[in-house]
C-alpha cells in the first residue's frame, strides 16, 4: 500500500512559464512511492468595475459585459485542460488531481489558497521580468515567496 504523499499546488496560467513549471514539478516533485495530491490553481483577474459609460459616453451593454465574463471562464477552462493533458501524459496513477479557480489579485489569491488548502509546496513559473518591469508591475512569484505559508519553488523557463 502506498503511503500518503504531499499536497503540491501549482499556479497555472496561459503562459509558457507556468506550463514549464508544471512540467518541471511532474518530473521532479511527484514521487512513484507515495500518493501525492496535485492542486492546479488558476487565478482569473478580478472582475472589472465597469461604469455604465465608457470614455466617449457610450453605454456598455449587458451583452458586452457577458461576453467578457464568458471569455474569462473559457480561458480558465482552456488553461486547466492544457494542464490536465500534461498530467495525463505521465503516469498519474499515484496523483490525486484537483482544480481550483480563484478570482482576484493573483498574489493574494495564491497565498490564501496555499493557507486554506494546506499546501505543502507551491510551484510557480517566473516570467523573468527585468528590474524596471518588476518594479512597475510587481512580481507575483516574488510576493508569494515572501508571504506563502509553505516552501515555494520558482521555476525559471530556460
Task: Describe it.
The chain is α/β, with parallel strands linked by helices and 158 residues long. It has one domain (3-156): Rossmann fold. The chain is built from five helices and five strands, in the order βαβαβαβααβ. It has helices at 16-28, 62-88, 106-117, 131-137, 140-147; strands at 3-11, 34-44, 95-103, 121-126, 152-156. It has a five-stranded parallel β-sheet. Helix 2 (62-88) links the parallel strand 2 and strand 3 (95-103). Helix 1 (16-28) runs parallel beside helix 2 (62-88) and helix 3 packs parallel to helix 5. The longest helix is centred in the middle third of the chain and has 27 residues, at 62-88. It is globular.
**Which strands sit side by side, in order, in the main sheet?**
3-2-1-4-5
- The CATH superfamily turns out to be HUPs
Mean pLDDT: 82
Query: Count of DSSP helices?
Result: 5
Helix-strand pattern: EHEHEHEHHE
Number of strands: 5
| Strand-residue proportion | 25-35%
Q: What's the gyration radius in Å?
A: 18 Å
Q: What overall geometry do the principal axes of the alpha carbons give?
A: globular
Helix content: 40-55%
CATH topology assignment: Rossmann fold
Tell me about the largest β-sheet.
Answer: 5 strands, parallel
Class inferred from helices and paired strands:
alpha/beta
- The CATH architecture would be 3-Layer(aba) Sandwich
Oligomer state equals single chain
Low-confidence stretches: none
Cα end-to-end separation: 38 Å
> How many domains, as an integer?
1
| Highest CATH level, the class | Alpha Beta
Amino acid at each position: 500500500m502506498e503511503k500518503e504523499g504531499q499536497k503540491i499546488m501549482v499556479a497555472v496560467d496561459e503562459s509558457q512559464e507556468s506550463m514549464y513549471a508544471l512540467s518541471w514539478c511532474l518530473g521532479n516533485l511527484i514521487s512513484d512511492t507515495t500518493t501525492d495530491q496535485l492542486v492546479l490553481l488558476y487565478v482569473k483577474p478580478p472582475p472589472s468595475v465597469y461604469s455604465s459609460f465608457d470614455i466617449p459616453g457610450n453605454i456598455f451593454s449587458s451583452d458586452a459585459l457577458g461576453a467578457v465574463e464568458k471569455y474569462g471562464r473559457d480561458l480558465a477552462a482552456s488553461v486547466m485542460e492544457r494542464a490536465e493533458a500534461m498530467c495525463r501524459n505521465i503516469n498519474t496513477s499515484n496523483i490525486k488531481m484537483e482544480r481550483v479557480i480563484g478570482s482576484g489579485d493573483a498574489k493574494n489569491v495564491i497565498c490564501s489558497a496555499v493557507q486554506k488548502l494546506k499546501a505543502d509546496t507551491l510551484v510557480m513559473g517566473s516570467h523573468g521580468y527585468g528590474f524596471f518591469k518588476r518594479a512597475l508591475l510587481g512580481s507575483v512569484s516574488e510576493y508569494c515567496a515572501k508571504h506563502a505559508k509553505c516552501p515555494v519553488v520558482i521555476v525559471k523557463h530556460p
